[in-house]
Amino acid sequence: MLGEYRIAGRRAAEIAASVEGAVGRGDLEPGQLLPPMRELATELGINPNTVAAAYRTLRERGVIETAGRRGSRVRPRPASTAREHIRVDVPAGVRDVSKGNPDPALLPSLIAALTAAAERSDESPVQYGEAAVAPELARLARAAFDAEGVPDGPIAVTSGALDAIERVLAAHLKPGDAVAVEDPGFGSLLDLISAVGLRPVPVGVDDEGPLADDVERVLRDGARALIVTDRAQNPTGAAVSGARARALRSVLAAHPEVLLIEDDHGHGIVDQVLHPLAEGRDRWAFVRSVAKAYGPDLRLAVLTGDALTLDRVGGRQRLGPGWVSRLLQDAVVHLWSSGAVDPRAVAGEYGKRRDALIGALAERGIAAYGRSGLNVWVPVPDETGAVSRLLHAGWAVVPGARFRMSAPPGVRITVSLLGVDDMQPLADAVAAAVGPGAGRRYV
Prior knowledge:
The structure is a single chain. The protein is α/β, with parallel strands linked by helices. It contains 15 helices and 15 strands. The protein has an 8-stranded mixed beta sheet with strand order 4-11-10-9-8-5-6-7, sandwiched between helices. Strands 12-15-14 form a 3-stranded antiparallel beta sheet, with helices on one face. Strands 1-2 form a two-stranded antiparallel sheet. It is globular, with a radius of gyration of 24 Å. 45% of the residues are buried.
């Protein structure tokens, strides 16, 4: 069962350390079956309850997983950067439409905001023990949430959307729990879920958001959490519609124990109406990042949710980073208060670029998708071939494997740095790369 390796120890902590150490050294491989608890107890000459306690510790640490009568196995090693490596090296002279960054020309200057924040700090330096959230930032965030129908709740500030999502997951879930996520979905989120010992479960998505029937199925099968991108879904550009929101709320109402996390990272660059899902839920969180509208280096997201979740997130945050710099918080306050970004104008500009590319592809018989945000998703029959041929034609796109679990193949094209004159030649290259009749399947 374990080859030549023999688990050692007489106390639960010693047994757990023996197994964990063997996994770390490679003496125990992912998927290897551990001895039944009574069998190991007999071999070690100890009480089976001691082995049970050791196995419980190993499960909580994400080292092993237990599947009832099928026994306990070493878990697959978590992927921390696997999807990040699914990218294309861009040679000189090739247009890079793979990065997913906003257009720098549509970002506001940060000089005035950071200057105002520095001046405020000079007047009243932040000291240890002060509130983690700048009062004015909390006020502005809460007012915006209220205006868009996000339920009432405390406000926290994290270092970006993924930081918030990780903290919320950790507040309620344990290693091995299943998390329902959009497929295709954000590659870094899929990596994060695996890296913290959770199990991503795919949910199909179309232009209007996650498919309600898929969500119902995975929640019925035991998923403990659901993560939904409200708008500017990456990579497909989906935005949750009013009708889809009603369907999802109905599904969620039958599963009150499920943790709901909503990601509104597209705030400030979209013109689709927000349709939040959390009303009436016991365990929920709503995350809003400033990165797409104000710049990726402003590592800040505002988070609201139920009181217990926010209390756990805040308590753990105090033991680590403590708080997100009040300098950054005050800079965001200045940006929000001064109207540095006109969301309608920015959303309109990105919309023109998406629509121009989608329209040019449609003229060539290629279906593509991009209802909101920075990206266009093109289903293709052969990802590797399409990416290679596009690179040869002078365009670097992202392979869909970076975003997919069980969804059909595709490629993602970021439109943020494209001009009107780019759309026809890019569409020609995509059509030549994927062949006639491509782009017909979304989910």
